[in-house]
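ok so i was messing around last nite and threw this chain in just to see what happens. nothing serious, just curious
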Amino acid sequence: MIRCAITECRDYSPSMLDEALNKIIDNTDFPDVKGKTVFVKPNILSDSIPEKAITTDYRALQALLLILREKGAEKLIVGDSPGTQMGKLSARLSKIEEAVKAADAKLVDFREENRVHEIDGVRLPMAAALDEADVVISFAKFKTHQLMSATGAVKNMFGTIPGLNKSPLHFRYTTPETFASFLMKVFAECHVDYAFIDAVIGMEGPGPGSGTPRHVGLMMGSKNAYALDRAEALIMGYKSVPLIETAEKKSPGISDSLFPLLNPSSLMIKDYKRIGEGKKNTLRSLVIGTVLNFFRRGNNERPRPVFDPDKCRACSKCVNICPAKALNIKDGHVSFEKKKCIRCYCCHEVCPFDAIKVN
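result:
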């Protein structure tokens, strides 16, 4: 059985990161990278400062890139494409650009460098780096997610589809289950060889972009990204999440693994602010929240986004990404056609002003 390693990593100091990452590598089935081209895909939901915990931390990324160099990787490629990306990829505020330069790696823009792949009968542009690389590594961020409950190593590869090309897919796959099934197909197309999750500082509450940073103090890695995501969900306190529920139905045992270091069952954070549970954190609320999350998934049963006109700055990011075309700017604020809303929460995900809530 494939191993999934979880170890303590209390902060982002170089020595702590180096020790944690090497410990994970030594205790799992890490690929041979000597003389190879390695593509590392971090989570850059938006180019936000590290303190917001929206992106894979630049220090963790840099530490991994330097380890790959030490192990003989010939060429390192790093890239992502945020859902709202309209122009050139920016990774300056997140300091990911700085980390890439420090490791003598190449930062690529998927909007400029992509190839067409066919998934589920749909022709989609995807990162050309997937075809160029000998080894593909997903480096996700430990975060909650309004639609999928948690976002991890598998969903991270959705970002290989450039910018607004992702938006219409939410209109095609409108429930967490159908979207999870599609994410599995995207992930399979990416041929991921290994995955990490940066869980030093995670995000709780209304993730993946509007939640609250929370110290978790862990680093995680495995060849089995599904096992890694299952472990993440268990640590957050979920019994399961849509991605793992769907994956296990399609391929029983796909998320099974051995834990040579720390076991996620003993690491559960009982008061982690999970999606749909508000401030409740008792065992009773965990059970109720799980039932609500996984057995009442119809569109009409999921809450709609709510827009705060006092916080809205009419930046149009939500308008641009909405696959149902339910939003537009009117009199300096967002106008919302509720009947069109498919409850994909893309608007909530990309709002930089915390002006959208899901209640």
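not much to say yet. The radius of gyration is 19 Å.
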